[in-house]
Design a protein that fits this description.
The protein has 175 residues and is an all-alpha fold. It contains seven helices and two strands, in the order E-E-H-H-H-H-H-H-H.
Length: 175
Amino acid sequence: MTAVQDHATTGHTISANGASPAEKAKDRRVLAILIGLAVLGLLAITAYLTYGVQGSWSYALSLRSRQVGSLIVVGIAIGASSLVFQTIAGSRILTPGVMGFDAVYVLIQTMIVSLFGASTLQLLGVMERFALNTFALMIFGLLLFRFSFAPTAATSLWWCWSASCSARFLPLSAH
């Protein structure tokens, strides 16, 4: 590889593939950290699968491996959804939890139980509950973004109302 000077922008020596030695060192550090975290994760999974097993190993390992698989799938789904949400919102720190979408989900479940009784929630199938929650969260999201980002007088009313509502639910020690 031949090295050239990039005097016009940085004055650093860069290799023929365009990466400076500092960038390559940073990439190696990041790769070492990722490998270390992967090894720690595998050790934690192994410890969870084998620690405290009494009785049938085949039953314990099959049950625990399904749980580990579920946790991995959920972790990937949460990571991907947060990445998409942050990309759409244009913010690296904004997540659905910060926006309150998880609290809205709990509110929907609470409203169903309060209005229709706990038996109604149990009678609804998984697909019906999923459709109901998806519809309610979409409506909430549309209303949130409509009132939050619309340049109207309703925006000011929306923020005043939401601030007063959230202040009511603060613990008494916070007042």
